[in-house]
Design brief:
Blueprint: H1 2-12, H2 24-33, E1 39-45, E2 50-55, H3 57-62, H4 72-82, E3 90-93, E4 96-99, E5 102-105, E6 113-116, H5 117-123, H6 126-132, H7 138-147, E7 164-165, H8 171-178, E8 185-186, H9 189-201, H10 205-216, E9 227-236, E10 239-248, E11 255-262, H11 266-280
Antiparallel strand pairs: 1-2, 1-11, 3-6, 4-5, 7-8, 9-10, 10-11
Helix pairs in contact: 2-11, 4-7, 5-10
The structure holds zinc ion.
Zinc ion binds at residues 93, 106, 108, 111-112, 125, 127.
Length: 281
């Protein structure tokens, strides 16, 4: 298995293959955690950028999928960078909103109530992103996406899946895309790991605080001593992909952990990330 893994990585990652530093024991334990569960797991060490484990590397590096609400990190970053939200900006989520005559729902029964940007990321409130996203200019979102390496074949491994980062022009599709819905944004698990690393390196402490809050109080519950964002991407009726992209420990990040599961929810991925993180301790 390890030989296959290295072979795949050498194919997809000629430029940085030397930075692979797989831990065979960790790899074996994570493979057993993922037995019978289609998807991928990546553990990436911060600082030296070594990949310590990659369960199903063809999926982890070579496949891009809709990230669901993980994409809210990009929109949140664009909102912060472009400073289009006044101080104290909040949205009252009643689970439904009408924008330009079209209805949108949040997916959280009863609604989240009043949420600001931090609360909206923590609790993954789509209504906030639908409403706040109307203030955002397309280039600001594209800049944020590019800064995270989305839609780029060269970032970070040449030859790895480039994914997609397209903001539709039609208003409804655009509004949905800003909250991570629709198929216009596609990420590989590896790109999700890089996104998290860039959140940790970035200048917006609010993003990091929100993602720590997401695990403490929000959708990432079950991931343990971590910060991170879940995503549940609907790809067909009653068929979803589950994501968790985050880091551990929450207050002294050492590893980026990404869990991608087919036929699962973001909650399932957060629970599996919790098991991965217990192995890392
Ligand atoms: Zn909401």
């Amino acid at each position: 298995m390890l030989r296959t893994l290295l072979l795949v990585l050498l194919i997809v990652a000629p430029a940085r293959a030397a930075e692979l530093d797989l831990d065979p024991r960790l790899q074996a334990r994570l493979e057993s955690l993922m037995a019978g569960r289609p998807g991928a797991v990546l553990v990436y060490r911060l600082g030296d950028g070594a990949v310590r484990a990659a369960v199903r590397p063809r999926v982890a590096f070579g496949q891009a999928h809709p990230p669901g609400s993980v994409a809210k990190i990009v929109t949140a970053s664009a909102l912060l960078e472009s400073r289009v939200l006044p101080a104290g900006f909040a949205v009252n989520c009643t689970n439904h909103v009408t924008i330009a005559g079209r209805g949108y729902t949040c997916g959280y029964p009863g609604g989240h109530g009043k949420v600001d940007l931090k609360g909206a990321l923590e609790r993954s409130c789509s209504i906030f992103f639908y409403v706040a996203g109307q203030r955002l200019a397309d280039p600001a979102w594209r800049r944020a996406a590019a800064s995270f390496g989305l839609g780029s074949a060269s970032a970070p491994y040449p030859g790895a899946a480039a994914g997609r980062a397209v903001l539709p022009t039609a208003r409804r599709a655009r509004t949905l895309a800003l909250a991570g819905e629709g198929g216009t944004v596609l990420l590989s698990p590896w790109q999700a790991a890089v996104l998290i690393e860039r959140v940790l390196e970035g200048r917006h402490g609010l993003l990091r605080e929100a993602l720590v809050g997401a695990v403490l109080r929000g959708t990432g519950k079950g991931a343990g001593d971590a910060g991170g964002k879940t995503g549940t991407a609907e790809i067909a009726p009653r068929r979803t992909l589950g994501w968790f992209a985050g880091w551990t420990p929450a207050r002294a990040p050492r590893y980026v952990v990404v869990v991608f599961l087919e036929s699962a929810s973001g909650h399932d991925a957060a629970l599996l990330a919790g098991r991965v993180i217990r192995v890392l301790k």
